[in-house]
Amino acid sequence: MTDNNEFDVSASRREYTRGGLRRGDLPAEPLPLFEHWLKQACEAKLADPTAMVVATVDENGQPYQRIVLLKHYDEKGLVFYTNLGSRKAQQLANNSHISLLFPWHMLDRQVAVIGRAERLSTLEVMKYFASRPKDSQIGAWVSQQSTRISARGVLESKFLELKQKFSQGEVPLPSFWGGFRVSVDSMEFWQGGEHRLHDRFIYQRETVSTAGQPATGWKIDRLAP
Questions:
Q1: Phi-psi bin for 61: left (phi > 0), alpha (psi -120 to 50), beta?
Q2: 14 is known to lie in a ligand binding site
Q3: CB contact at 8 A, 198 and 16
Q4: How many CB atoms lie within 10 A of CB 191?
Q5: Terminus of the chain with fewer CB atoms < 10 Å: N or C?
Q6: Mean pLDDT of the chain
Q7: pLDDT exceeds 70 at position 210
Q8: Is the predicted pLDDT of residue 178 greater than 60, yes or no?
Q9: CATH code assigned at 111
Q10: Residue of 110, 122, 101 whose CA lies nearest to 223
Q11: By the 8 A CB rule, do 111 and 102 touch?
Q12: Of 83, 19, 97, 23, nearest in space to 55 by CA
């Protein structure tokens, strides 16, 4: 404790001893390693292993962060869904640059992604929306995300009203609800190490020439901790 009875955060530390990451462990592309780590996070029964911090920037250069859930990933990118009137969606409409962070700290791991976000097609959004539980579908209708409200009761009353309205049929897709696919420009893997000698490797997308034709490859570098 400090003199003013505040908790001394400077004294909070531990050793990272859960393993290392070596260049020989790395595949040629980042997605297989990301998938392997994600599966291990799920198998370890971490709380919300698909949760990721999403960082966007407003028109003044002010960054904002929030946590959302990863809902799909493949070689095209990483996908999440949101209200299109939300602060994050409005900021991405003006500046598509985005950063993602998976904080798997219980495994002494982080994965950081830098890329660009692109709106999903209506067909893709409809397919995912139809797969959600009905109460979650109704919840998407209730909230005008990021707007100010007077009390929680406003949301609860609206939810009950819409639950009654849609009780006998399917819940339609709101026009203001959608998703984004983040194409990956770089992906960094961080594995905690003893004595703060962490292992960090970054994959950066680059254009290479193969048989006279441009193709996309990945440059891999080890970073100092």
A1: left
A2: yes
A3: yes
A4: 22
A5: N
A6: 92
A7: no
A8: yes
A9: 2.30.110.10
A10: 110
A11: yes
A12: 97
Strands in 132-223 per DSSP E: 177-191, 199-210, 213-223
Tokens of 170: 């399917």
Residue 81 has pLDDT above 90, yes or no: yes
196 counts as catalytic: yes
Number of domains observed in the structure of the chain: 1
Asked if the structure places residue 1 within a domain, the reply is no
Residue 22 among known ligand-binding residues: no
Confidence of residue 224 (pLDDT cuts 50, 70, 90): very high
220 is in an annotated binding site: no
Residue 166 covered by a domain: no
114-168: pLDDT as tens digits: 999 999 999 999 999 999 999 999 999 998 776 788 889 888 898 899 999 999 8
Taking Cα atoms as reference points, which of 47, 50, 28 lies closest to residue 37? Answer: 50
- 152 in a known ligand binding site: no
Out of 109, 196, 205, 222, which one is annotated catalytic?
Answer: 196
Residue 168 lies in a domain: no
| CA 32, 33, 39, 42 torsion-angle sign | negative
| Amino acid of residue 118 | E
Annotated binding-site residue? 181: no
Listed in sequence order, the DSSP H helices in 46-168 are 87-94, 122-131, 134-142, 152-165
Strand partners, 99: 55, 114
Would residue 57 count as lying in a domain? Answer: yes
Specify whether the CB–CB gap between 104 and 41 falls below 8 A: yes
Q: Which residue has the tokens 């009390």?
A: 151
Which value, to the nearest 10 degrees, does the dihedral of the CA atoms of residues 13, 17, 18, 22 take? Answer: 120
